[in-house]
Amino acid sequence: MKKAVLAYSGGLDTSYCLVRYAQDENYEVHTVIVNSGGFTKEEVERIEKRAYELGSKKHVTIDITEKYYQDCIRFMIYGNVLKNNTYPLSVSAERMFQSIAIANYARQENAECIIHGSTGAGNDQIRFDVAFSVISPNSEIITPIRDEKLSRQAEIDYLVSKGVEYSWEKAKYSINVGIWGTSVGGVETLTSNQSLPESAFPTQLTKTEADSQIIEIEFEKGQPISLDGKKMPAVELIQTLNSLAGAFAIGRDTHVGDTILGIKGRVGFEAPAPYVLIKAHHLLEKHTLSRWQQLHKESVATWYGTLLHEAQYLDPVMRDFEALLESSQERVSGKVRVALRPYRMELLGIESPYDYMQSKVATYGEENEAWDSRDARGFIKIFGNQLKIHHSFDKK
């Protein structure tokens, strides 16, 4: 019997793969689910129970939430990464790390095959295949849904023929929950002119304008370390902030972007904690970084987010980007006050020992001690010299 590792979620596609390869193809199938902060304990237990019922030889849950934060999320905070100025890479970053974890497990188990249930139309197939082929190159990659272009009904019919009587009704909305945001797909996101209804979002608005509150987030070298004066690990802080800001329905939007395959796609999402943290962190950087730091790290962060989205996390250039991003955070420490209101947030201000506005050298629009009027006149004259040369030709 060939040993195969199956990236298992408990859904229709991966259940089809499990039953087919455990029963018809006679493989020894090891099911693996990777929790990067999106599954509850009850969900993990339910998925494990179903895996064994459908024929899994061994089921493993790998929790990478802390690793995901340390190796990826913190760099997205450092870079204020919002793809197309909108999307915090909620699913794309998560999928990459789930793929890497499965590939590492397959290599550890000397699996001859790795199976996943991706179709041929999306980005996930690329993230899975790239990670598997790089980390576990001796494992054959098997993708029946993609290769055989199986319809949902064909999968259901097959499972019913095998006595699998689970309810496989397709949900109206496809939802992927993660610590760094939740994606929401539906019939509306397949169009260019429709928006998701309020009911489509998993986290519903429960706060009113009267419930508006001001919170304080403290950062140390770019990392969030406390919420309202309470120190806590970053993962816990993100989870707490997701609940807090989610009740105000903050962080909702629709992302329009280019898939790795070159087609346009839309997806709705809610990302309360990422949205608040990125905006708060960015404000703190405006006060504590030089203008050239801000300019260059913005370019680096754009490339970091783009390559992360496009399954290139394992490229060595990503470690180079991370080194610059981390170096830039040396003085990004301080507290940021944020107002939470229904559907929106407001940045109120910061306190930091490295705030450039506290400089004793000069105050914007006011007095200064670093130069006098003659220095200012001379600087302005030289500063505008090249423009004067350029425009002097117009007179000729």
* Unreliable segments of 5+ consecutive residues: none
Q: Summarize the biggest pleated sheet.
A: 5 strands, parallel
Instruction: Compute the number of strand runs.
Output: 14
Rg, rounded, reads 25 Å
Helix proportion range: 40-55%
Shape designation: elongated
Enumerate the strands of the largest sheet in spatial order, edge to edge or round the barrel.
3-2-1-4-5
Secondary-structure element string: EHEHEHHEHEHHEEEEEHEEHHHEEHH
* Residue fraction in strands: 15-25%
Kindly report the average pLDDT value: 93
User: What structural class do helix, strand and pairing data support?
Assistant: alpha/beta
Distance between the termini: 86 Å
Provide a count of the helices.
Answer: 13
Overall description:
With 396 residues, this protein is an alpha/beta fold. 42% of the residues lie in helices and 19% in strands. The protein is built from 13 helices and 14 strands. Helix 8 packs across helix 9. The termini are far apart.
Describe the secondary structure blueprint for this structure.
Layout: E1 3-7, H1 12-24, E2 28-35, H2 41-53, E3 58-63, H3 65-78, H4 90-108, E4 113-115, H5 124-135, E5 140-142, H6 144-147, H7 152-161, E6 174-176, E7 182-185, E8 213-220, E9 223-227, E10 230-231, H8 234-246, E11 252-258, E12 264-270, H9 272-288, H10 291-309, H11 316-327, E13 334-341, E14 344-351, H12 373-383, H13 385-395
Parallel strand pairs: 1-2, 1-4, 2-3, 4-5
Antiparallel strand pairs: 6-7, 7-12, 8-9, 8-13, 9-10, 11-12, 13-14
Helix pairs in contact: 1-7, 4-5, 8-9, 10-11
